[in-house]
Every structure is written in C-alpha cells, then in structure tokens.
Amino acid sequence: MHTTATRPPSYARIRVAKRAVDDRAAAYALLDESLFGHVGFIHEGRPMVVPMAFARAGDTLYLHGASKTRIVTLAAGAPLCLEATRLDGLVVARSGFAHSVNYATCIVHGRGRAVDGAELDRALDLITDHLLPGRTREVRPMTGQERKATGVVALDTEHVTLKVRTGPPNDPDSDRAAGGWAGVLPIVTRFGAGEPDASTPGGTPEPPSLAAARARFATGRIDTVS
Questions:
Q1: Domain limits at 82?
Q2: pLDDT digits over 49-74, tens only?
Q3: pTM score, whole prediction
Q4: N or C: which end of the chain has fewer CB within 10 A?
Q5: What is the percentage of the chain residues whose pLDDT exceeds 90?
Q6: Contacts of 86 (CB under 8 A, 6+ apart)
Q7: Considering its fold, how many domains does the chain have in total?
Q8: What percentage of the chain has pLDDT greater than the value 70?
Q9: What are the DSSP calls for 91-159, one per residue?
Q10: Looking at residue 102, which CATH number applies to its domain?
C-alpha cells in the first residue's frame, strides 16, 4: 500500500500544511462515506470534471458510468483525479476575511484502467452496495443488455491527500474583544424515510439496504487543527 508519509509529488501538495492529515485509513474512511466523487481528466486538451458514483476496493476506486461516456472510453492509462468532500459547518467570524468552512476533503491521484469480465461484475456489485449496502442481494440480476450499456473505470491509486479544517473562527484578539456573535453553523446531512413508488404494494416494508444507507452515510468527523 502507498503511504502519505513520503514527500508528495508537486501536484498533490497542500498549501496550508497544518490541515494535512497523514492518515491513509482516515482518507479511505472519508471516501467510503461519500455518496459520489468529482472526477477530473483531460479531453482534447481541456480539463473536464464530472460527478461519478464509485466504490473502493483496497487501493483501487471503481468509477461508474455509461459505456460510451468520454471518461469510460478514454480512461485506459490516462491520469485521473477524484475528489470527495464532506462539509461540516460554516465558520462565522467577525470579519469577512476570517470566515471559513469546516470540511474534510480527499483527493486521489492515479491512472485509469479499463475493467471487464469478472472484475466488471464485481465492481458493479461494489458500486451498488456502496450506495445501498446489501442492495445486490435484494434485486434481480443484471441483463446482458444492461451490462453492455454500463461502463466501469478502475482508478489505481498513486497518491492520496486528506485535508481537514475543524474548530471555531481564527479571529484576531482585537475582533474578539469587540464582541458580537461568532462561531460555527453546523451542516448535517441525512437520509429520510423511503418514499415507495406507485407500483409498490401497500404495506411493503423498506428493504434493509435503506436503513444500512442511512447508517453508512451519517455525518462523521475527522479532527485536526483549525
């Protein structure tokens, strides 16, 4: 496994070093609790960023898209970057300059790899169960046509960066002495109760995967300096 302890390459350096968290397990935990990631790549000389569902297996991220999308058709061997962020609160200061956001953000750099065969089937199950844990046991098997229309790119990790801000505003002493309200406005994300469609028989209970999703994506915290 790669580690974050080695000096990062220039493209992965963090400007405010005190917000870097040198913990690969914490970075992976943030990825595992993220609903989707923003994936960056270059196409025809231009930067592209697209939101994509994904799942992690060790040091590999599997990215889900239609089989004919640009990233799926172009990703083999290409440099890719995936970003996932959790917003924890708005940091309300006594000056506009000192306002900030409490957050945890993970950036993964690596190269894309085409996925097919048994690895494709496994990756699709991982992505489904990432969003709704256990859902693959509750649904019918994928048809051949559905499988043909679905693409997966493997992002094999080369470097992982985790950056975190926590805590109150960093107001100077003169602003604190002047009084007035300052602090943090928390951001809380949660799933509600499932809303069945018109074809669901009355009284049908929620499948267990919905409760598992609510538990998996409950807001977490990674602590570091502010």
A1: 10-216
A2: 999 999 999 999 999 987 777 767 66
A3: 0.84
A4: N
A5: 67
A6: 30, 33, 34, 103, 104, 105, 189, 219, 220
A7: 1
A8: 84
A9: EE-SSTTT-EEEEEEEEEEEEEEE--HHHHHHHHHHHHHHHSTTGGGTSPPPPHHHHHHEEEEEEEEEE
A10: 2.30.110.10
